[in-house]
Amino acid sequence: MEYDKDKVDEMVLALLYLTSFHDRFVTRAWKGMDWDALDRLHEKGYIDNPKSKAKSVVLTEEGEKLSEELFMKHFGLV
Questions:
Q1: Which of 2, 43, 51, 66 is the most exposed place for a label (fewest CB within 10 A)?
Q2: What pTM does this model have?
Q3: Multiple choice CATH, 5-75, 3.40.50.720, 1.10.10.10, 3.90.550.10, 3.30.70.20
Q4: Mean pLDDT of each 10-residue bin along the chain, 78 residues long
Q5: What is the dihedral of CA 54, 75, 7, 47, to 10 degrees?
Q6: In 1-78, where does DSSP find H-type helix?
Q7: Nearest Cα to Cα of residue 59 among 72, 50, 51
Q8: How far apart are the C-alpha atoms of 76 and 78, rounded to whole Å?
Q9: For residue 17, what pLDDT is reported?
């Protein structure tokens, strides 16, 4: 099936905001999302490498900011 991977990545990043939490000096999010999308978000610089035994990923500063913006854009109340 063909689909717009950038749109999927945008939604996944927005949903990572929903599951994000602060852990010491970083922001983490549960990584129960599509592995290919997480790999693409890593390649784009929004999250650290998702291939670890941890159940969460670390959002970069840019990824944390963008995930909140995208969440509010797509799911926030106007």
A1: 2
A2: 0.91
A3: 1.10.10.10
A4: 96 96 95 95 97 95 97 90
A5: -30
A6: 5-18, 35-43, 61-75
A7: 50
A8: 6
A9: 97
